[in-house]
Amino acid sequence: MGKEKIILTGDRPTGRLHIGHYVGSLKRRVELQNSGLYDKTFIFIADAQALTDNIENPEKVRQNVIEVALDYMAVGLDPTKSTIFIQSQIPELCELTFYYMDLVTVSRLQRNPTVKTEIQMRNFETSIPVGFFTYPISQAADITAFKATTVPVGEDQEPMIEQTREIVRRFNHIYGDTLVEPEILLPDNAACLRLPGTDGKAKMSKSLGNCIYLSDTADEVEKKVKSMYTDPTHLKVSDPGKLEGNTVFTYLDAFCKPEHFGRYLPDYPDLNELKAHYTRGGLGDMKVKKFLAAIMQEELTPIRERRKEFEKDIPAIYEMLRKGCETARATATATLDEVRKAMKINYFDDAELIAEQVKRFGQD
Ligand code: TRP
Fold first, then answer.
1. What's the pLDDT at 363?
2. Are 34 and 81 in contact (CB under 8 A)?
3. Ligand 1 neighbour 139 (Cβ under 6 A)
4. Contact 172, 178 (CB under 8 A)
5. The listed CATH number (3.75.10.10, 3.65.10.10, 3.40.50.2300, 3.40.50.620) that belongs to domain 6-194+314-356
């Protein structure tokens, strides 16, 4: 039992998924799902976490649950291999969160760098919702309820996994070996670790309007690539160009494979030569953008087409999620039973307890 290899990860349904999600996590998940190396895979839509800073926008979260589910199916997550479910439908997660709250201090939460940045970005100042502040604890519940060993996520989630590991160690130390310490699995390519927005800003975000979505049309992808941020000092084709901070080249680092040259840019043997020419001068942005656009279309077209197919039967997607929730709930319930037992709050399914108390009160 303890040696099972289990993957778990999820996304907040606050928008459609974009290519940052794709290279940062989704693509890897599909590979892991299909690798046969894992005993179980759980993928979930973190609607309850999305509500921690969208409590006045329930409709937004609700709409995006189905968008994310469609994106999942479109990239190749397969409900016959992975359990795909919705966080809020697993009430056991709330109960676990409630117990884990006793294992974490306020100052420890205040030190979480991801939560700190998010609080700043949202201008909460001193009006931070308690649920938002404590979401790292609920994330520990998400992970441990399924005894996940491996959590494939982006770099920004590192503090959450560390927090989870601390909770697991503390729990097991106090109550005996019950929970499993998870490991983070980061993308192995630096460009994939943090794909910038099309405007060159550090992160893709819906509010900045700098995302390429998995569900974008071919035209939208083309337009977004053509207007991408490059090197503002590279004005004439003959000018030497810079690669650092040049979004087009960062995207090429994330998406370009050697075989793309033969297909779309046969004058160059590989990415190094293309970069060298750009740096030297004499290579225009448009030529590089056209190449990138061709690569992006090759990668995104099958995803877009699969999504269109799945969109034709929306009830089937909800049914898939319903079944996923059922399976997930069974697993979470089993873990919760163990947790309650370890914490000695399983009063009614502990035959020995009553016998012990009878003895203690001297009735036999
Ligand atoms: N915090 C993650 C995000 O913002 C979503 C998430 C919630 C998650 N619970 C998780 C990811 C557990 C991995 C494991 O995308």
1. 58
2. yes
3. yes
4. yes
5. 3.40.50.620
CA of 142 to the centre of ligand 1 (A): 8
Ligand 1 pocket residue status of 46, Cβ below 6 Å: yes
- To test ligand 1's pocket by mutation, which of 14, 41, 49, 90 has the most ligand atoms within 8 angstroms of CB? 49
> Is pLDDT of 1 > 80?
no
Residue spans per domain, the chain? 6-194+314-356, 206-310
Between the CA of 146 and the centroid of ligand 1 the distance, in Å, is: 14
CB-ligand 1 contact for 12 (6 Å cutoff):
yes
Contact residues for 290 (Cβ-Cβ < 8 A; gap 6+): none
Work out the pLDDT band at 2, boundaries 50, 70, 90. low
Q: Is the CB of 142 under 6 A from ligand 1?
A: yes
The answer to whether the pTM exceeds 0.85 is: yes
Best CATH choice for the domain 206-310 from the list 3.40.50.2300, 3.30.70.120, 2.60.40.10, 1.10.240.10: 1.10.240.10
The Cα–Cα gap between 224 and 210 comes to: 8
User: CA-to-CA distance for 249 and 240, rounded, in angstroms?
Assistant: 14
Instruction: Measure 330 CA to ligand 1 centroid, in angstroms.
Output: 20
With beta carbons less than 8 A apart as the criterion, state whether 223 and 183 touch. no
pLDDT of 40 > 90? The answer is: yes
Could you read off the pLDDT of 235-254 as tens digits, one per residue?
Answer: 899 999 999 999 999 999 99
d(CA 102, CA 100): 5
Per the model's pLDDT, the better-predicted residue between 1 and 100 turns out to be 100
Q: Of all atoms in ligand 1, which is nearest to the CA of residue 138? A: 9
